[in-house]
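Need residues for this backbone.
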């Protein structure tokens, strides 16, 4: 019976991962299925469900957005998704980023300083003829090109 319990991956319609997870959670609660966790990750189009395979099959049966089962997944393969790493850790001064949120969405900018404690960065827009420093939360940008420069020993406001 222990071999039936595990983490199973299901294909889900892209953009509907959270809705699918909610359906599974509600069915598990309503019918008292042995489902311990439902994981929605940054990998779009997939849902990971931990529990007894027989109960998981019942919970996903005829559920909107949920497609076929892709198999059992070892927990070791999901560890990177379970421990979130702050976006700011991957950024450094001089990196070229794209702004993905706010009024400058779609603009490219260069990081001029990083404030680790607040998870904020200051950027200069590359498309602007005048240098205007803009302070953004690190989640508001996507790395496009890493800088070639090594960051100096002194870091801004660590």
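Answer:
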């Amino acid at each position: 019976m222990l071999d039936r319990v595990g983490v199973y991956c299901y294909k889900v319609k892209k953009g509907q991962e959270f809705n699918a997870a909610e359906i599974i959670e509600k069915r598990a609660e309503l019918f008292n299925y042995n489902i311990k966790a439902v994981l929605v990750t940054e990998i779009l189009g997939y849902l990971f469900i931990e529990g007894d395979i027989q109960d998981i099959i019942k919970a996903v049966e005829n559920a909107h957005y949920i497609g076929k089962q892709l198999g059992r997944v070892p927990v070791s393969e999901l560890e990177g998704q379970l421990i979130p790493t702050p976006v700011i850790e991957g950024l450094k001064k001089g990196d070229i980023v794209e702004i993905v949120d706010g009024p400058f969405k779609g603009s490219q900018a260069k990081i001029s300083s990083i404030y680790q404690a607040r998870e904020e960065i200051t950027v200069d827009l590359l498309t602007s003829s005048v240098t205007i420093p803009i302070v953004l939360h690190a989640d508001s940008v996507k790395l496009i090109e890493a800088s070639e420069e090594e960051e100096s020993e002194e870091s801004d406001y660590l």
